[in-house]
Amino acid sequence: MDAQKVDMFLMMNSKFFESYHLNAVRDKLMSLDESKWGLVQTLQFKDPTTALIISIVGGGTLGIDRFFIGDTGLGIGKLLTCGGLGIWTIIDWFLIMGATREKNMELFQTSLY
């Protein structure tokens, strides 16, 4: 694939991935043929900042932040325990952005492999 397209994709979408994932994303995109470019453009990544805002505003206690990123099991766990009596909610304020980026990487990998 064209290096300029790949670099533009990375500039526009780097906030959706951890910094150490960017080289793997670039390598994978460079090895793709042009026919997959449309698929890459249609991937819907979750915004880590949105997940953090949901978690802080009050959705963290109810597990809405975990439902948002696709962690249904953890979302149900947080919902039933009221965010682990608030402890799990506070811990997620620090972890939810990384978890969102990991989920985005999983989406990228599963849709292109």
From TrEMBL:
It is found in: Membrane. Keywords: Glycoprotein, Membrane, Signal, Transmembrane, Transmembrane helix. It is a multi-pass membrane protein. It comes from the Bacteria. InterPro entries: TM2, TM2D1-3-like. The chain crosses the membrane at residues 51-69, 75-96. The keyword rRNA processing does not apply. Residues 45-94 form the TM2 domain. The keyword Transmembrane applies. PANTHER family: BETA-AMYLOID BINDING PROTEIN-RELATED (PTHR21016), TM2 DOMAIN-CONTAINING PROTEIN 3 (PTHR21016:SF7). This is TM2 domain-containing protein. It comes from Flavobacterium aureirubrum.
